[in-house]
Amino acid sequence: MLKLTNYNLKFKITQNYRLWFLYPLARKYKPQHKAIIQSYFNSHFHLYLQRRKNTEEPKKDAILIHSHIPTSKILLTKLKNSSKFSIHQFDTYNLVSTLETTGFTHSQAVAIMKSIHALINNLEAAKTKFISRSNLENETHLFHTSQSELKTEIQSMRKNETTVLRAETSNLRKQLETLEQTLKEDLMALKNDVAIDVNERKNSNKVEEKDIEIKIQELNNKFTIILGEIRAILERSKWDATRYGMCKFFLLQQNLNIIKVAIFIIAGFALIVISMQETIQKKTHKIKSEL
């Protein structure tokens, strides 16, 4: 089996084609044929690496295949232009002729040539389809940079929003404390006003009660005076009635009997009572007008 060492393949398709193409040949053909196939394969890989270097690809993508075959037997196709590698650089006739001179039949040489040509085309296709390691590293670096910038921006936005929210919370707390203090002051003022009104009402009620008590006392005094005057009037009326009856009795002693005397006395009392009622009504009307 061929000795393939120190390779670092970027595209998996390259390794698959190499294993598919070289290992069956290594088992099937003679040892001298193996050296020719390996040398030709190495030469085309060398050209592929040279073209990648000319197109400024990084050295990490290089594929190094070391062989024990002398360099005189390696078939190299010269580059027509060192800065630009042509796509149609594969010399099929030279390869088939070389393989036929080494003992391969024409059909075998053509099959090997087609396989190598397909492998090279697949390498080109893989180069166009897949991104290089340097570009991948650049994209990864740009992604991490953008991610870091986004993270920094988000942190800054969060910090700013947190600062604004804290300021708003502090402002609301101050407004709440001011409102609470104002409410307490209003409650204290209202309580003081209510207490003052209650005290004033109590004082006014006390004054009114005192005025009412004074008026009641004055009425009691007036009623006492009126009752005293009425008693005096009654006593005077009794004496007047008694004197009137006695006078009538002495004047009409001869023609007066007991019934007539009684009638005279009752009539005198009636007159006295009527006069007293008139006096009492006048006094009462006077007291009401004063109240």
UniProtKB/TrEMBL annotation:
InterPro entries attached to this UniProt entry: CCDC90-like (IPR024461)
TM helices/strands, residue ranges: 258-276
Localization of this protein: Membrane; Mitochondrion
Presence of the UniProt keyword Transmembrane in the record: yes
Protein name per its UniProtKB record: DUF1640 domain-containing protein
Keyword Ribosomal protein among record annotations: no
Cellular component GO terms held in the UniProt record: membrane; mitochondrion
PANTHER family reported in the protein's UniProt record: MOZ PROTEIN REPRESENTS A CHROMATIN-ASSOCIATED ACETYLTRANSFERASE, PROTEIN FMP32, MITOCHONDRIAL
Keywords for this protein: Coiled coil, Membrane, Mitochondrion, Transmembrane, Transmembrane helix
